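Lab notes, practical 5.
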Amino acid sequence: MKIKTIIWILFSSMAMLHAVNVGEKLPNVTLEKDNGGNNLGQAWHSSSLKGKVHVLLYMDPDKRKEAMPFLDILNSKHYDKQKYSTVAIVNLAATWMPDAVLETMLSKKQQELNNTEFIFDKTKYLLKKWNLKDDASNIIVCDKKGKILYLKSGKLSSAEVDKVMQIITANIK
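Output from the prediction step:
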């Protein structure tokens, strides 16, 4: 019995090795080739998230309605593009929709959204590396050095939206 408990603790600890946590730096991850990338088919590196405040929305396309009210508020702010950006990372493996259809639809949507870059995770690679919640909307706010300021899985309440907006505004300065 004790051996099973020890093994379970070890595996649980190993799963958390790449987890993202508030106050820590965002772990470097690259989405490329079969794992995904940007809407042009190029590699995307999380190490590029430096020099400005970034809001990352890692989401299941079928759960996008959870994040849309928050994303609409973000886009209404028209933050300075030199100091802020949004990165929407789409978990293509979490939906029934064909990748090509979803990628085309989101590439068009990117033109409408203020300062939002779409990234595609085709195999849940980033989800596993960062130990995020699957089949959900995950929101991560990082400062200019890549330190995680806020992390939440699931729909934000209005009080949480206010808190996130305060964090963003305070760190853009």
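Observations recorded by the TA: The radius of gyration is 16 Å. The beta strands are 30-31, 36-38, 44-45, 53-59, 84-91, 116-121, 137-142, 148-153.
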